[in-house]
Amino acid sequence: MNGSRPGNAALLAAIKAELTGGSDVSVCVPALYLGDTRDALAGSDIRWGGQDCSAHSAGAYTGEISVVMLKEFGCTHVIVGHSERRSMHGETDELVAEKAAIALASGLVPIVCVGEMLNEHEAGDTDAVVTRQLGAVISKLGAAIEGCVVAYEPVWAIGTGKTASPEQAQTVHARLRALLCSASTVGDSVRILYGGSVKADNAAELFEQVDIDGGLIGGASLKAAEFVAICRAAAAPHE
Fold this sequence. Notes:
By secondary structure, this protein is of the alpha/beta class. It has ten helices and seven strands. The protein has helices at residues 5-18, 34-41, 67-72, 83-89, 93-106, 118-122, 126-141, 166-183, 200-207, 224-235, and strands at residues 26-29, 47-50, 77-80, 109-114, 149-152, 192-194, 214-215. The radius of gyration is 17 Å and the shape is globular.
């Protein structure tokens, strides 16, 4: 929940001027700014999306944003199951799966977020938590999971300055990859993003991991130079 119309215009203009291909980039913005974002990015290689969607296409759901509405503004992606939606709004694994399903059916790419809280991390329950969370979406979608993007966000590393080591992140990503491959013959091609305090100075090392395909960027996306540097790190060839 950041941004203003003047600030957004400056941020998007700077990003647009610097990014001319090399990596797939989508900015997911507060719904009120989707029209401005569409106008600012039209004709560029950068896509845009929503930060959440309703599990319903229309009806008496005051305050909700439907996938139909997002599509009207040219969105290509929508985040579902972000850790803040799960923790602050009580979203269940099943609701996240329903949101992913309606987004996929509408032609949007759901960015499905999974990740463990600090107490779960310290208890050694990371594997069980992410398996349960992604498993609910796989149970709902089956092989159609191949149309999603998955984002692993260790909640203990969001906005704290803490970051899972590349090796820790890769271990979780490998588990997610195995789950995706068990559901789809093209599970290897599903993109898995890392989303825990990614910055310009740690992005390259994270993106070098075999199962980390990019980042779900939080605070660093509010600074054009930082965000552009991360995108360039994602675009760089990795062995």
